[in-house]
Structures are given as C-alpha cells and as structure tokens.
Amino acid sequence: NKLQDSICRLNPSEILLETGMDAAVEEKLRKILQIKSAQCNISQYRHEQDERLAERHFGGNLPDDPEVRAAIELLLAYLHYILKIDFSHINKLTEIVQNEYMALDASTLRNLELLRNTSDLTTKGSLFGVLNATKTSMGARKLRSAIEFPLLNIGEIVRRQEAVAVFMDNLPVQESLSEILKKIC
User: Fold this and answer.
1) What is the pLDDT of residue 161?
2) DSSP secondary structure string, 66-117?
C-alpha cells in the first residue's frame, strides 16, 4: 500500500528496474502501475556494478542503506548511459522522511483535488492550480511538493510562513525577485 501511495504521490513518468529482478515483484509492480499510473514507462537496465560511481559523484555523502546505494548507482549509470551528459549539477540527495510529513494517500490527494481536479484530471480548479503563480518550473515543483507532503513540524511551518510574510510585506522586493525569476530557464 505504501508503494502504491508513493507512486501515486510522485506520479513518475518513468520507473527504472534492474534487469533480472524477481519476476513476481516486477509483475506486481507492473499491475500497480497499470492501475495507478498508466502513463508511467518502465525501463530496465543492467550495469556493471561500480560502487564508487555514486561515491565519486556525491563525494561520499550517501545513505548507509546498501539497497538505497545500489538504487542510486543504478540510476546514475542509467542516466550516464542514456543521456551522455555531465550531471555535476545533480549534487544533492534528499530523503523523504515519512514521519516529518502528513500521510496523504492517493485517494485523499484525488478526492480533495489537491493536485488535479476529478473531472478532467488537469490542474484547473485544484488547490495547486489556484495557488500556482510561480515563475519557474522549479517553483512549481516546490509548490507541488509542499502540497503533496504537508509539514507536521510546527517550527518548520512557522519558518515557512515567516519566509512568505517577508515577501508579502515588501511588494518592491517581491516584484524585483519575480522579474529575476522570470529570466531563469
């Protein structure tokens, strides 16, 4: 159930599986995706294990869990193989710690129309659609993440509110920053 909810929340366009994984697990994952995220592509890739790839890339700042490290290795190798570009701009990993955020399952996200409306599955009329006045795709992703993963920590909520208040109380700074952000690709 947690995997299904995570897939619905993240709404990935692609999921990467290592070639040769357990056939029963793969079949179950395909069924989940067929129901929950039909547009998601499943790619399979096998690479020669180079446990130092992630370490070299992230400078040793990696999680201790060997399965997480293996997933990071697979993803990096796949990206290098497919796109053949420099990934030095990807320099940070962010762990989603479940007990720091309110647990919203897929049906809650759907029924409250937090990200998409239920009639045509667009953002029009959803909470995200109403709030989204962002100037960059990075800002839109950040807003979407804030809606999908509501904070539970009161201190963090207040800190976020205070940051927003700085811009709400200072219109010239808000407009200046808005113009600068419009120029970001």
Assistant:
1) 95
2) HHHHHHHHHHHHHHHHHH-S--TT--------GGGB----HHHHHHTTSSS-
